[in-house]
Each structure stands twice: as structure tokens, then as C-alpha cells.
Design brief:
The chain has two domains: 92 residues, Tyrosine recombinase, N-terminal domain (DNA polymerase, domain 1, Orthogonal Bundle), CATH 1.10.150; 185 residues, hpI Integrase, Chain A, CATH 1.10.443.10. α2 crosses α4. By secondary structure, the chain is mainly alpha-helical. The protein is built from 14 helices and three strands.
């Protein structure tokens, strides 16, 4: 098999694998997009190095990881590349596409432990006031509807710890406001039901009564949050809105939408919620993922230790 034939076969298998991740594993669009970029980068490197991408051997994979390190990639990014390769070769061996898996026994560099960023209470209050004030000042129905929608998105994010992708895919049937609950579909389409704070429920009701009807079109589906065209309020559009809201709140460039999720977890833990409950609300598979938030609430841990220890 020529080098061109090997690259063509690898590219074809890559397409099959990405379809498997999308339609059988039900991974998120962003995860599949990231793995696509990682695996395509691996194919380009193999082409430059004259290496068969389906049979690089462990040495070849180690050379690729060394290349990523020399190119200045962060440890987290290098590990994601390795994870993408492990998934690809694991699938390829299991389905009989290739004979050997050169990646499964390899481990990447240890990630640097970084604590998540969280908004302070005053910062969160400033952020949540932006669209509330805009809605009050709005002179036309569409402007008011957009402000009510964006206020509802931010309030819901902080009230539930939902991911941006989960908020974007909420539908009218997954929002049970009478019971103060939302049904969310997380990574891998895993379903969970989370409680919603009464303030967020009030904001959602105001949006549904006074905002959504002005955004909905005859062709609109039952998406909860709508764009000005009456379509689903996309993840990218929510991110742009969040960035603009940060600027209006005087917090430009400091936080990302995911930091709302970090703030939710930190605040409910500091307020007395147990770790298992927070794990369920966030949809974490492993408790160790949730435990990082305990590092952000030392005063809560000290209090728990004082109450639980037999000597006080």
C-alpha cells in the first residue's frame, strides 16, 4: 500500500469514526468538533513525516506527542489529542478496521491543576442586572423580548448550573415551571432533572408571557429560547450574548459562560449542599470531578469539620 493509499484509507476511517461518535455515542457537537480537529492534525503530521497513520507503532505516537510538546501545546490540549487517538484506535480495533492499538497503553503529561474561576456575589449581581434594566427601558416589543430572553438564560444558568449547550436545547416540554424543575440532556444525551430557584422561575415565566411570543414565528419549533428569527437560540449566539453582557457589566474579558456553572456549584456547596447532590445537579459521572469545587469553599469545609469532629 502506497503512502497516499494509507492516508486515504485513514481519512475514510476517520469519517466513519466521527459518524459513530455523533450518531451512536451521541457526543456533543463541540466534542466531535474538537476530536475532528485533533485527528485531522494527526493525519497531517503523519503525511509530513511519511508515516502510516493506521500503523504508527508506539514509537510513532510518542513522536507525535513530542511534536505537540515542542509546538507549545498546553498539557490539557496534548492529552485531548491523545484521548482522540485512543478513541479512534480503540474503535478501529474493536470493529476490525486495524489489527493493533498502539495508543491504549500510553499516558499523556499530567494536567496542571487549576481551580475554576467563579464570579463574586457583587459581580453576579451586576451581570444579572444588565438585561433586567434593558427590558425596563425597552421602547419596542422585540427589544424587550430579547432582553427578557437573555435575562432568563442567565438566571437559569446561575440557578441550575446548566451547560450552555443544555440551555440552548431546552424545549417547552422540558421546563416544568409549576414544579420548579428542568429536564436537561447533558453529555451523551444523559438526562437529569434539576431544581430551579424561584427567582429564575419568575424570570422564565415573564419571558414566556411577554418575550417569547414576540420572537416566535409560524415555523418555530418548541425550543424554549428563541433567536430573533424564531429559531433555536444557538450556543454560539448565547456565548456572544454573554460576552456582550460582561462588557456592559464592566467585566469584559474576565469570565466565560462556563464560569456561571462553576459559580453555581461553588455557591450551593458554600450554602450547605452535599457533594453528591451537587454532582447530580451538574451531571458529573465521577464525584472526583465535583470535588474540585470544595477547594473553593474552605470556610464551608472548616465549618463541617468543626461540627463533625468529636472534639469540636
Amino acid at each position: 500500500m502506497t503512502a497516499d493509499d494509507a492516508l486515504s484509507k485513514a481519512a475514510s476511517l476517520l469519517d466513519e469514526h466521527l459518524s459513530y461518535l455523533t450518531y451512536e455515542r451521541n457526543l456533543s457537537v463541540h466534542t466531535v468538533r474538537a476530536y475532528t480537529g485533533d485527528l485531522e492534525a494527526y493525519l497531517r503530521w503523519c503525511e509530513r513525516e511519511g508515516m502510516d497513520p493506521l500503523a504508527p507503532g508506539r514509537r510513532g505516537v510518542r513522536l507525535y506527542l513530542a511534536y505537540l510538546d515542542q509546538a507549545g501545546y498546553a498539557r490539557k490540549t496534548s492529552n485531548r489529542h491523545l484521548s482522540a487517538l485512543k478513541g479512534f484506535f480503540g474503535w478501529a480495533v474493536a470493529t476490525g478496521r486495524v489489527e493493533a492499538d498502539p495508543v491504549s497503553a500510553l499516558s499523556g503529561p499530567k494536567n496542571e491543576k487549576r481551580l475554576p474561576k467563579v464570579l463574586t456575589t457583587p459581580e453576579m449581581e451586576r451581570l444579572l442586572m444588565v438585561h433586567a434594566e434593558t427590558a425596563q427601558r425597552a421602547s419596542d416589543d422585540e427589544s424587550r423580548a430579547k432582553a427578557l430572553r437573555d435575562q432568563a438564560v442567565l438566571e437559569t444558568a446561575y440557578a441550575t448550573g446548566a451547560r450552555i449547550s443544555e440551555l440552548s436545547h431546552l424545549t417547552l416540554s422540558t421546563a416544568d415551571l409549576s414544579s420548579h424543575q428542568l429536564r436537561l440532556f447533558g453529555k451523551g444525551s444523559k438526562e437529569r432533572i434539576v431544581p430551579v430557584h424561584p427567582l429564575a422561575v419568575d424570570t422564565l415565566r415573564a419571558y414566556l408571557a411577554q418575550g417569547r411570543p414576540h420572537l416566535a414565528k409560524p415555523t418555530s419549533d418548541e425550543w424554549l429560547f428563541l433567536s430573533v428569527r424564531g429559531q433555536r437560540y444557538s450556543e454560539d449566539a448565547i456565548r456572544r450574548m454573554f460576552k456582550e453582557t460582561l462588557a456592559q457589566a464592566g467585566l469584559d474579558g474576565i469570565y466565560t459562560p462556563h464560569d456561571m456553572r462553576h459559580t453555581f456549584a461553588t455557591d450551593v456547596l458554600a450554602g450547605g449542599a452535599d457533594l453528591r447532590s451537587v454532582q447530580e445537579m451538574l451531571g458529573h459521572v465521577s464525584l472526583s470531578t465535583t470535588q474540585i469545587y470544595t477547594h473553593l469553599t474552605p470556610e464551608r469545609l472548616q465549618e463541617a469539620h468543626h461540627q463533625a469532629h468529636p472534639r469540636g
